[in-house]
């Protein structure tokens, strides 16, 4: 299940941008952060994909959502100019941003490339 973040949630679970000048991830698991708005059609297309990702990778990564209309400061801090904007945050290293509605395969490739997490294949007998 995806989790909506407020500014305070973001500062405690991801990055305290008010007190830390250098990037320091605060989470226990790598995460994907979807910067979205309710009125955005491409954002609504991505939402069920992210719900699937959250369920399929439960315990391996977290999936967060930031409503750019409600959390304008967060959107500004990350320079969000178009939505959806997807931030891939590894446990170590710098986050990477992707812009636009990505298909599920692109999310899975990014999860493997950025986080080093390979989706477990279900064998059919």
Keywords:
alpha/beta, globular, 125 residues, 5-stranded mixed beta sheet, Glutaredoxin
What does this structure look like?
A 5-stranded mixed beta sheet has the order 1-3-2-4-5. 33% of the residues lie in helices and 18% in strands. The protein has helices at 7-13, 41-56, 72-77, 104-115; strands at 3-4, 31-36, 62-67, 85-89, 96-99. Strand 4 and strand 5 form a beta hairpin. The radius of gyration is 14 Å and the shape is globular. The chain has a single domain, classed as Glutaredoxin. The mean pLDDT is 93. It is α/β, with parallel strands linked by helices and 125 residues long. The chain is built from 4 helices and 5 strands, in the order E-H-E-H-E-H-E-E-H.
């Amino acid at each position: 299940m995806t989790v909506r973040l407020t500014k305070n949630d973001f500062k405690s679970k991801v990055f305290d941008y008010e007190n830390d000048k250098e990037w320091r991830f605060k989470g226990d698991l790598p995460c994907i952060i979807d910067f979205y708005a309710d009125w955005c059609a491409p954002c609504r297309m991505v939402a069920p994909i992210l719900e699937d990702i959250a369920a399929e990778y439960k315990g391996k990564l977290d999936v967060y959502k930031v409503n750019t209309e409600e959390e304008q400061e967060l959107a500004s801090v990350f320079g969000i100019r178009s939505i959806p904007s997807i931030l891939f945050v590894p446990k170590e290293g710098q986050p990477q941003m992707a812009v636009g509605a990505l298909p599920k395969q692109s999310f899975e490739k990014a999860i493997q490339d950025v986080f080093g997490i390979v989706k477990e294949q279900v064998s059919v007998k």
